[in-house]
Amino acid sequence: MSTTHPYEALTPDTVLDALASVGLHGDGRLMALSSYENRVYQVALEDAVEGNEQVVVKFYRPGRWSDEAILEEHGFSRELAQAEVPAVGPLLLEGGTLHHFGGFAFSVSPRRGGRAPELDDTEVLEWIGRFLARIHTVGAAAPFAHRPMLDLRSFGQESRDWLLEHRMIPMDVEGAWREACDAALTAVAQGLGGEGGAYGPQYRLLRLHGDCHPGNILWTPDEGPHFVDLDDARTGPAVQDLWMLLSGERAQRQRQLGALLDGYDQFRDFDRQELALIEPLRTLRLIHYSAWLARRWDDPAFPATFPWFGSSDYWKGQVQMLEEQLEAMAEPPLVA
After folding, report:
1. Structure pTM?
2. Which of 18, 20, 257, 278 has the fewest Cβ atoms surrounding its Cβ within 10 A?
3. Tens digits of residue pLDDT in 45-57
4. Residue 154 sits in the same domain as residue 277
5. Residue 93 contacts by C-beta under 8 Å, 6 or more apart in sequence?
6. Which residue, among 163, 176, 149, 177, has the nearest Cα to 291 in the 3D structure?
7. Number of compact structural domains in the chain
8. Which CATH number covers residue 244?
9. Which residues are catalytic?
10. CA 249 → CA 108, 240, 255, distances in Å?
11. Do 127 and 101 share a domain, yes or no?
12. 93 and 131 together in one domain
């Protein structure tokens, strides 16, 4: 059995040759961008394409998404662009947006500059809220056919089962983690409000950005936010794209939420019932994140970047966070 990871074959020459296969020629300057799930490079071109002297090339992790699911993400970004929502999507090259070279699927997008948004600035939050509402208006227009739902089964139960089956948790912590995780998933199921851990019928599900944390928003003072990286686009409730922008103590989170919804409600009514889903969704992400790290451990980038993962101390910390989430799910939801 091979001990090498597929990404080890992704050399700078391979990146440039992949670009050349779709008619673009790099001038030799390329820079790896921060991305763990995929491999992403900024490449300077000899000749600009659609006014872009630099492009961003994304090589999708082999085996993660089918071509149909990737193309569905591309279609969603195209719909957003047509609705004049500033979401950065792939360029149409050689008649398509998804390409293949050297065993990798890849896409090419225009480079967009910017910095992380100031989430303590009410005006910034309102601006982001307005565009999130517009993303969700597009997202509600049609369903995904090939992309999964963000739900208890896929993010919670399957993550727990995989970690236990693959013996990823040290024996001295496994019992405590299993107990805390099972209790947390039971509370999540109750919080989602439907039968068998499904979402309750009161919640409307739609196509989402799915991973809308501050690192996936590029902010410029003149143009506002540009939303990047729809790689985790899934079906779920609208609040999933809001709660990761909240931080700090409860009072601070409520202020941030109020500003986001002040902007959001200008373009789309936000159902306040969904605020009860924030802590269940946070709990699912916590469990899913541990499983994501464990599933990617054969990728050399992960042990190098997350050296603390897998130790007894790490899992003891996870037990404590799950217990804190149990308390958070028992509290009244945020109000705006």
Report:
1. 0.95
2. 20
3. 999 998 999 999 9
4. yes
5. 22, 23, 24, 49, 99, 108
6. 163
7. 2
8. 1.10.510.10
9. 211, 229
10. 40, 19, 10
11. no
12. no
Q: How many CB atoms lie within 10 A of CB 30?
A: 17
335 in a structural domain: no
CATH number at residue 68: 3.30.200.70
Q: Could you tell me the two tokens for 234?
A: 């899934």
Token digits of residue 219: 């902010």
Concatenate the DSSP letters of all residues of 40-60 into one string.
EEEEEEEEEETTEEEEEEEEP
Low-confidence ranges of the chain (pLDDT < 70): 1-3
3-state secondary structure 225-261: EEECCCCCCCEEECCHHHHCCCCCCHHHHHHHHHHHH
- CB burial of residue 84 (10 Å; 0-12, 13-18, 19+): exposed
CB 31 within 8 A of CB 15: no
Q: Are residues 250 and 309 in the same domain?
A: yes
Which among 279, 267, 260, 147 has a CA at the least distance from the CA of 206? 147
Distances (CA, A) of 280 to 202, 212, 260, 324, 326: 16, 17, 20, 12, 9
Whether residues 106 and 126 share a domain: the answer is: no
Domain of 317 in residue numbering reads as 122-330
Q: Which amino acid is at 156?
A: G
pLDDT in tens, 81-96: 999 999 999 999 999 9
Same domain, 70 and 179: no
- Is 253 in a helix, a strand, or coil? helix
d(CA 82, CA 138) in angstroms, rounded, equals: 10
At 3 the pLDDT is 58
pLDDT number for residue 80: 97
